Amino acid sequence: MVAALLAYALLYASPYGLRVLTVAGVYALAAIGFQIVFGLGGALSLAHGAFFGLGAYATGILGSQWGWGFAATFPVSLLVPLLLALLVGLPVLRLESHYFALATLGIAQVVHLLAVNSPALTGGANGLPGVPGIVLFGWAVPRGLPLAAVVWGFVALGGLLAWRLARGRWGRALTLVRDDPLAAGTLGLDVGGLRLAAFALSAVYAGAAGALAVHTQRVVSPEVLEFPVMVSVLTIAVVGGRGRVAGAILGAVLLLHLPEWFRFLERSYLIVYGVALLATIVLAPHGLTGLLDRLFPARPAPLPKPEAPSGLAIANGPLLRVEGLTKGFGGVRAVDGVSLTLKAGTITGLIGPNGSGKTTLVNLISGLETPDGGRVLMGSADLAGQRPDRIARAGIARTFQAVSLPEGASVLAAVAAARLERDGSIAQAEAHALWALERLGAADLAAKPCAGLPAALRRRVELARALARQPAVLLLDEPAAGLTDGEKAELAGHLRAIAATGTALLVVEHDMGFLLPLAGHVLCLDQGRPLYEGPPEGVRSDPAVVAAYLGEGAR
Amino acid sequence: MRRFLSILSATAFSAVFSATLLPGAALAGEASVPVLVPLTGFLSLEGTSQRNGAVLALKDAPAGVAVRSEVIDTGTSPEAAVTALERAAGGKVTAVAASMLGTQMLAMLPLAQDYGIPLVTVSGTASITEQNNPWVFRFFPGDAVTKEAHARYVTEELGKKRPAVIYQTTAYGQSGKAHLEQAFKTLGVEPVFEEGVDPAAKDLLPVLTKALAAKPDVLVLHLHSGPTALFIRQAAANGVAVPIVAGSAMHQPSTAALLEPAELKGVCAETAASPISGGSPEMEAFTAAYRAAFNAEPDAFALGQYDSIRMVLAAVQGGADSAEAVRKALSGGTHQGLAMTYKSDGKGNMAHSAVIVCYDGASRVPSITKRYDNLTGVVTGMVK
Fold first, then answer.
1. What is residue B12's predicted lDDT score, i.e. its pLDDT?
2. What Cα–Cα distance (Å) separates residue B99 from each residue in A241, A422, B124, B260?
3. Is the pLDDT of residue B37 over 70?
4. What is the ipTM of this complex?
């Protein structure tokens, strides 16, 4: 693709063709940044156009009004959107999906209104003419091929950086945050930090693109802050291929040239343009890069050699102590003064009727819910109320009642996500992930995509992911749900093997036939309160448990 | 569907036209005049008028002048306008009929200077003729001219001293408001109310109510077409008796079409010209030709662009055989157009006249009530 663009620019393009190519480069750079926050991070930031405009205005004002040169205006054009992103990112990134999109749209509207209504600074709705061209080391870059080369030079630099980030641990972590933020947190990933970093980095890209846009058109006006810029970038990302640097470049080149090819149709070109876009999205729902992947599938990468993570320690004695944990939702006491101790190498069963507070208790321990009171002690450290990633780093891992695996990832990549926070490279994380899969007899699944795996295998992969954390404490929420008897027996064997290494297991389960032979200790909850605590043998004979949960037929 | 067919037919007309070499007894010259105007976006109505005016002038090229042209939509972004100009500059260009959008013009100016291409436009806003660029020619009175006429009519003819000014928060609105403010100040009048309105506002009753609370004796509007119609409709519906003198958007037949004639009763507006109001056989011939070609009513933008291209073609007919020669002819010549006499003030401002039109409440065709010629934008008269 790079060679084709280069050949076109050098051999065929007219000044007009170079102009379109230059603008395509500007939008490619903006879209590469958008791929980071939207494609990889999954956050539909509608402030991206505002960051583009801020970069444009920084260059426009400083260049045309203050006489600053490119060497000074360009860094400022990166800095201004970055600072705004950091400022607004903290509150808005807490919002979920469409609320986040609306909040960022609001930011864009405010910035646009400020630009239009501050004529003394921004030139108001008329904007500011007289923005100087790019001067590099004393060389005033002329229009045409040199300007196109400079813009695409920035695209190449930005693209390379984004590509490396996307393929590295940071990109993988961000993808998991996009696909399953809850799981990402419990795997030790700082979800908020990753989102903020992606938001801020995307703003830097947008600011750079805005600055270059102003240098190419030599005037800055509120149009750079208007929604069509945002829509263009979003369309480029979707048509090119979400999350892919190549997608941003392909999309920008196509979408900037497409209207030009149909210009002779005057305003009817919009109809043709719309149909062409629609056709692209229908024929290539995963974008142009997705289509290319489908037509020319890449050869699967060879699997790494499984490698046991170092420092696997077998601990003794109590690992986790929960003391008087409480949690209420409105008027309902979901967990009411629950205490328990998980000892190294033991399996504790957690049972109770639906709504008794089992999953809430697991969520409280793993940080997905904040307790109203009580303590969660690992050694002397109280983890109650801490972020999931901090709790995960303290040595607690978990699985979920409804298995959630990233559909677009391979099994190996899904399990390796558990090691991203600990290992120094993707290769190392995958080697450790393969070790975890091997321990559960699932190494043969490594190259398979998560999408389409049967329920039993999905549970196996999720368990491997938790195991790859090398947890001191492993919380399993209904791990046998949906499994056949044979699969349950196999799972029980694996859980005993894990406990034998010193890990303390807390297993939430309804299947007494599976759990009672497995657990050494059982806690039964009812309406958030402990109903029974003791050996599994006593469960079926406890009148309170029978009355509240098992029923008379279970005796 | 009708709109779609209309677009297609206009496109077909344009395509055929662009390939036409108009016959003449002897070829006096060739003119290549690309038309780069906003056909899509919020200025599509006005841009279409611009396009139609230019196309009509090129179609009626003087004898002996062969014409080449293509129409390119600039949308409303400066970026698209620059790209369109770069595309047009790929061939030999005599002059360009350039966008009426000020921000697009500002973006095109450096490139026009680099390539040496005269830009003829009907942009009335933005300081496009204050950039020391000898390649721009404005064939529509700038705000300095029209707002002088606007303010003078309000104060001198209507005798009003307490205007409420309602403007748009766009380049057009901000520029007009600034010039109105200056013109009123020079006339010794201070507006009792000023407020900007977003063009997307769907209800103008709040701003109307606020304006009336300031007890104005006249409502002075400087709004785009849609908001102008909305404001006037809401004023009529609420029985507002305060007279309304609107900006040039009101004179557009497409704006009047949004209102019932009764709602327009007593409403006046400033504009460069009002072709549908007639006034001369030439003007009526232009209006008839326009209707026949485009099945639409011409407005001042169409007429201004028509006059501008006629002046370019007259220059070519007179021997201007290059873009530079055309620039010189536009800079130094005088052209008797249909709307007015055009002559550069040295900066490329060619139009120095404005008219006030008023509606009688019986039809959507206004009559010309007052004509102001040789306006400089510097108001010298004092309020009565």
1. 42
2. 35, 59, 11, 31
3. yes
4. 0.78
